[in-house]
Amino acid sequence: MAEHADPLSEPDIDATNVLPAYEASLRWGATAAELEEELGWRDADLRQPGAVVSGASTCRHMELMASKPDYAGFVLAAVEGHTASSLGVVGLACRSCSTVAEALACHRRFQHLTNRTAEYAASIEGERLTIVEVRHGEAGLGSRLLSDYTMLVAVQLLRILASAPPRVHRMVSRRSTMPATERTAYADFLGAPVELGAERAHLELDTSLLEAPVATADDELAAYFQEVLHRAAGFEADEPVLIDEVRRAIREGLFRGTATACDVARALGLGQRTLQRRLGEHGCSFASLLDDTRRRLAESHLADPTLSLTEVAYLLGFGETASFYRAFRRWHPMTPLAYRRKHQRRG
What we know:
7 strands, 9% strand, two-stranded antiparallel sheet, elongated, alpha+beta, disordered N terminus
């Protein structure tokens, strides 16, 4: 066996994520012995509960298959082998969500539990929903090939989830060149053009996809998976995923200097009115979550003696310290300075 770190000792990706590609490679020119020799992948090991592989081994896998005839045929065979269950419990949770928008939010929040090699963000501009990949590690050929593969897998999974096929406007690759036959094969699969030369791989789809019902939605299962995933990720289990998502987006927005309802809705891949409506279904509003998130952050920041009150106000997105003082008096019957002193005496 070739000398390399055992990929099953590097917990980057759950093996369920790579099984479709492993199985397809055996049908498209690779042998089990070759995959074991080059990657350390063994069929029996990959099928063990809890098995994991390294991100580096998945890059080598794509490079290996690219050296064989009909690479595009292999990629599409692997893509079509994916189901929601190939994403493990996260995929099953997405499958139980009510709408595609909720499924995308669920995937974005919990994807790191099964795959830590890349992150995905969704944004809306006009009538287009853009899903962008941020892939970690060296930007070699295998990494760029994987980016294309994951974009195609995303479309496959959206087709499985949505009650109506998603309309794809285009896919943009990180690769600067691509054989014409491969590019045509991908375009035929997508029903949309494939463009090259982007810094980050991304998909552009019609925003109508977000409102599409998930064909297998199940409220009871969704509640169960929410509890399982929140516990696995170490999040609070007593709040709906959407509210946790909004709190996270507000915190990130305040850090960047803006956390409006429009900004947060865009970060979550939702329209502003849709966001307000869904929050209302949970008995809250964006304004109340913004206020409560600021309160929690204020209490946390005031516990840090290295931050001045002016800096705390700035971190909370208040344009002036006086606005912070007025808000704090609504949260607590004392000034921020008195709260800090009281907290320090108790600490």
